[in-house]
Write a structure and sequence with these properties.
The protein is α/β, with parallel strands linked by helices and 443 residues long. It is built from 20 helices and 16 strands. The chain is globular, with a radius of gyration of 29 Å.
Length: 443
Amino acid sequence: MKTVLIADDEQAIRDTVRMILEYEKFTVVQAEDGPGALARVAAGGVDLVLLDIKMPVIDGMRVLETLREQHPELPVVMISGHATIDTALEATRLGAYDFMQKPIDRERLIIVVRNATEVKHLREQLESKTRILGSTPIMKDLLALIDRVAPTEARVLITGENGSGKELVAKALHRLSKRSARPLIEVNCAAIPNELIESELFGHERGSFTGATNQRIGKFELADGGTIFLDEVGDMSLTAQAKVLRALEEGRIERVGGTKQIVADARVIAATNKNLPEAVRAGVFREDLYHRLNVIPIRVPSLRERREDIPVLAAAFVEDVCAQNGMAPKRFADEALRLLQGMEWRGNVRELRNTVERLVIMTPESVIHRVEVFPQETRRSGELEDLLSQPMTFQEFKDRAEAAFIRKQLEAHEWNVSKTAEALEIQRSHLYNKMRKFGLERE
């Protein structure tokens, strides 16, 4: 059951709202002034605040500002008997979810409260899915760096391999920032054709180019007061780079085909899997822009650098997949987890997530065993039965058994010869000789 706080100095208003919402199965708590409202929210358990603008001691606008600073995830609906358009716009600018006039319309109240509480619930669900998991030292260092950098206004450049979680880091930086009540606008620079990226970032005026039939608001303008996330920034054209640099230097942008300077107060977070210093040397990325973006560098480690986190990640993915598909809970057997930890994961966390989803869906039992992760073992066990049933000399049996064993170990280590040799405790050159002797090649 959701809890709604109604903060209004008029007892009649509080009673009316309480009766309407309690009939709709909401729990209602009350406060008659600003300090009382802040104290009740601080006590916890409030899912939505209905906040009057005109209140004694501290007015509603100041309470709204405090709530946005201390509880940015909490939706607040402003109510007033003397509303103007300017007041409504100011409340929205400060982060109010909605604005209602007195006398309060019953149907509109129910709709607004339902929508606002559902938005909070969906946001909590989304944050649980986008949380950064891991307890290895390298991940603890990453999380500590995010906590330290997020509340600042500093620009951040996130680097790391594809699938390592750069987007999750960007979302965490925004969620923990002072701008979290305003939007996080994401732009995938690699997915936008070069001829359109300027329009996407800065907008355009009607008639500014062929096909520009209407005015378009750009991503920088939409992110005003919030954060803009430039994903795969290394793929941006030099022309677009120049305009981004100008926007960062001046805090203003200009739409394509326009002459008006527009304020764009957006914190910039960028990410790339490319080596930008190398791109600078090659002349395909501006050095001045690189230094502007790289105020705080954050490197996201690959999954291979934190294999100890794989059991935690796999368990979370299993839970998520089962919930999404309405399936009974499942889990990995210990030997299956050990096999997952030994794999290379060139696609990092994204590849692990896809693999877990496939295994959960394709395994009918509640426990996912090693044989589901590595189905070649079923074929290998059949080969052993065939081997034992065939007439041959002892040397022939040893050679064929040794060949089958080495092939199995190579497959378990994704045909990484160095890691396989290390696991077998033999020299890499010795393993190469065995592979040549038995004709072992990756299928």
